[in-house]
Amino acid sequence: MRYSDLPEWATKVGDWVGRYYATLGERPVRARISPGELMAQIPSEAPEEPEEMARIFSDFETLIPDAMTHWQHPRFFAYFNANASPASIVAEQIVNSMACNCFIWQTSPAATELEMCMIEWFRKAVGLTDRFSGLIHDSATTATLCAVLTMRERALNWRGLNEGLSHAPQIRIYASPENHSSIDKAARLSGIGQNHLVKVATDESLSMRPDSLREAIQRDINQGRRPAGLILCVGGTANGACDRIAECTKVAKEFDLYCHVDAAWAGAAMICPEFRDIWKGVEYADSIVINPHKWTGVQFDCSLQFLAEPKLQSKTLGLRPEYLETLGVNNVTNFNEFSIPLGRRFRALKLWFVLRSHGLSGLRQMIRNHVRWVEHLQTRFESDPDFEIVTASPFALFTFAFTPSGRRSDSQTLGLLERVNDDGRIYLTQSRHQDRSVIRMTAGSMNCREDDVMMVYDVVRELASAMN
User: Fold this and answer.
1) What is the CATH number of the domain that holds 120?
2) Where does the pLDDT of residue 452 fall: very low under 50, low under 70, confident under 90, or very high at 90 and above?
3) Is the peptide bond before 243 cis (omega within 30 degrees of 0)?
4) CA–CA separation, 28 vs 69, rounded Å?
5) What residues contact 428, with CB distance under 8 A and at least 6 apart?
6) Could you read off the pLDDT of 377-413 as tens digits, one per residue?
7) Scanning 39, 89, 259, 365, which has the fewest C-beta atoms within 10 Å of its C-beta?
8) Are 146 and 307 in contact (CB under 8 A)?
9) Which residues contact 408 (CB under 8 A, 6 or more apart)?
10) Which CB contacts under 8 angstroms, 24+ apart, belong to 385-390?
11) Domain-located, residue 39
12) DSSP 8-class letter at 299
């Protein structure tokens, strides 16, 4: 294939994409395929001679779409959505075509400066003060690891970078048990260690208890350990749990701890002013992560990290060898110095396209719709004696269990979930709450409508009746 063939194939691919979205609701949400089934249809070695694009694309159409779980499906209610609005798709096509590596300002000046602008746009959109600037990562996992590394080095006065951790004091960081597993991964990969990630007790609302946090920190100080940081959650992945940010950050500041807030999913809802009381006190955090690729239609990957003092993170992660200098120019921002990889994609373009294409008003309406529809769906399950609402959240998420005749049984609940997902009309996932299996329901697809959300009860009820 030649570059001159690109216009023809871009048109053919565009036609395929149009047909895909037009018929997406007719497909089963989850792939109906067994492990290894696709691999068995692929040759074991790469071809020795070039093949025609027409043949390659024909094989794609035959083999790939039906072997995929369709994340843009209007009835994808599992995990958190990884949305791709049309404006974002177009922006990604442009970025893929330009194929730039935006690691320092001079390699892509527009990418760097547009990223700075988009951080400002989103900061204002969610109501954060001008105390924060920031950057765009690939995912919240990376942003959280960067924050934890910064906690570690700040607590060690940046000696760990050169001396290592073998003779360092035991570093301790604190988080809610409702936090995402990326916090555990950050504790492991940072060298702090899983055993030094302290899971602080929560109250009946699943919020971290400030008194328990204070006790845990003081106990570690008394035992000669070094508290370094606190990680709070707004919209926990399993059940939408939210910590009391103002009270917990106050405790953190009493002990001079660096504070990171994981609002990867629910942070996007803060473009709606009525939700902002939920993260009251967030202005006292040192680092905040929000993923526009979850709930605002920006294609994966696009994760925003807001920083109160960016220099602390660049002091931890930044390196500038001679070959990365921009000669003759001073005071430029090189975003690679605030993150782990040197190479960086042009992620700001799709955020720019989406915010302009939908406007904040359009995105607010979508989020409000999802919350309202899920609340309505929750009431339908609540009114059915065969189901129990186990957890609820202020956002578009709840968990429930199948309890026919009042009997609690993990096997019943998981058996129902398996039937639901094999059925193909909707897609849900499981979670655990207080050693109990639950079914997790969340809505966030840009393609879903109220009828799609309400269909969840109809499908679940139908399949539950068949089990009974």
Assistant:
1) 3.40.640.10
2) very high
3) no
4) 8
5) 77, 78, 417, 420, 421, 439, 440, 441, 456
6) 999 999 999 999 999 999 999 999 999 977 888 889 9
7) 39
8) no
9) 388, 401, 436
10) 386/464, 386/468, 387/460, 387/464, 390/239, 390/433, 390/436, 390/438
11) no
12) P
